[in-house]
Design a protein that fits this description.
Blueprint lengths: L9 H18 L1 H5 L7 H15 L4 E4 L3 E2 L2 E2 L14 E5 L4 E10 H19 L9 E7 L9 E6 L2 E7 L4 H13 L1
Parallel strand pairs: 5-6
Antiparallel strand pairs: 1-4, 2-3, 4-5, 6-7, 7-8
Helix pairs in contact: 1-3, 1-5
């Protein structure tokens, strides 16, 4: 079910992300059966982005997008000279930023999580240049079971939940509300 016109709230974004991941794990599970050392991260994120575009018809869904209107994405205050998130849901010509997703395969996670975490912190922090409503770090498992894949959820520049990618909506929405209340 696509969103109607307007800017969705973070809890609505969680529901739409859940729908896109369900579709991904139903339709493209064979990509994960083929093995995550052979199928590129970009292939997996493109397919997820493809499903997200259907759910966000009034927004742009881009993979590896490194622009902020007419300049490169960066955060000099955090020492990040250049950024290109794996997937973003936004409007290209306006500062309307909804979701930023970074994805890493399980076997590369430990060496790259710190950089991805810093990038998502920058993209979601309320005092930064981007102010994405929601950030998601997807730890891609080497199997097609959504429950084996991990998700680290960010809002306001910090991780507020860690879940699997199976039936996560209620938990993430509840933790998001609790994080906003504190």
């Amino acid at each position: 079910m696509p969103i109607s016109k307007g800017i969705p709230e973070a809890r609505e974004l969680v529901v739409l992300l859940a729908s896109a991941f369900r579709t991904f794990f139903e339709v493209d599970r064979n990509l994960l059966i083929l093995g995550t050392r052979g199928v590129s991260e970009q292939t997996l994120t493109f397919r997820l982005g493809y499903y997200l575009q259907d759910l966000f018809p009034d927004f742009d869904v881009d993979c590896e997008y490194n622009r902020r209107v007419d300049r490169s994405k960066n955060d000099i205050s955090l020492g990040i000279a250049w950024m290109k998130p794996d997937i973003i849901v936004h409007r290209r010509t306006l500062p309307v930023n909804l979701v930023a997703i970074e994805a890493k395969k399980e076997y590369r996670w430990d060496e790259e999580w710190e950089n991805d975490h810093l990038k998502l912190h920058s993209l979601t922090r309320p005092d930064g240049d981007y102010c994405y409503k929601l950030g998601l770090a997807w730890r891609i498992a080497a199997e097609p079971n959504a429950g084996a894949h991990r998700a680290y959820w960010l809002s306001d520049g910090r991780v507020f939940a860690e879940t699997s990618l199976e039936n996560f909506e209620a938990e993430v929405i509840g933790r998001l509300a609790a994080a906003r209340a504190s």
